[in-house]
Design goal:
325 residues, seven-stranded parallel sheet, six-stranded mixed sheet, 13 strands, binds manganese (II) ion
Amino acid sequence: VTALEIRDVAGVLQDHSRLVILSHPDPDGDSIGSQLALCSVLRRLGKQAWAVSEDKMPAIYRFLEGPVCVESPMEVSDPDLLVVVDASNRQRVSGLPALEASGAEILNIDHHRSNTRFGRWNYVDSEASACAEQVYGILRHMDVDLTENEAACLYVGLLTDTGAFRFPNTTSGCLRIASELVNHGFSAAEVSRRVFWEKTPESTRLLGLALSALEVRHDGQIAVMHVSRDMSREAGASASDSDGFASYTKVITGVKVGLLFREQNGEGVRVSLRSDSGVDVERVARLFGGGGHPTSAGCVLAGALDDVKRQVVGEVERLLDEQAK
Ligand SMILES: [Mn+2]
């Protein structure tokens, strides 16, 4: 296991010729943007490269595909390097089991504080606002001129991981990189609109149902929102129609922790936790086998919606009470 400096990452990439880029399940803007941009650049450098996932690409990010698409691990043959982006541990890598038999080693590029350094080489920087920021830095070191599409991919990574430049990880470094990316020709306004303000009618109807059932608890410090299977059915919505709802739990004045509970189509309840800096909700997510960042984390629990709510709200109350002491 080797910890890499940014300049060494470029060397590892250059030393290999058949590279697979993987990331976490439930793809998001940062995982997809980092995968597609890196894959596209590596191909332009004359390498064989694949961006791979076993998970479905959310429709809102499909406009980033074109030069490169996210493929199934089955499409890959004989890789010599597995590049994992934006995943904190080996269990959080979609498609990895299918590729590990190749014997190819792992290069781990990530910005989660909880990263387990699971690669042969590890470039972990928890100060980076998004994995896309790390990828941008690596490509700068390689003196790569980005295409418009590659720049848009990395911009989407920054945009989504900072909640449209609202979260505490919105640093001057991140904004400087965003500015440099916008110089490559894509429209920042158009990208924001596609990612955040283009909802299906079903999604909008579902948001209305979820907002009318929102509750504020614990002296106004915890907001609890849920999306039940019944609500989804009533709105005619699909699973991805509730993506992004978690942000709405944090808009109420005085709320320190926002929680979104989504009943899955299969088993279990998906929980999204949001907070201001100072309240580390990743600790709660980790108690339930999940993870993420201090102000934005998630986990999936087995059990009925009400039971899951009770368990998670209980732990958040404990955390807030502990901090109030
Ligand atoms: Mn990320």
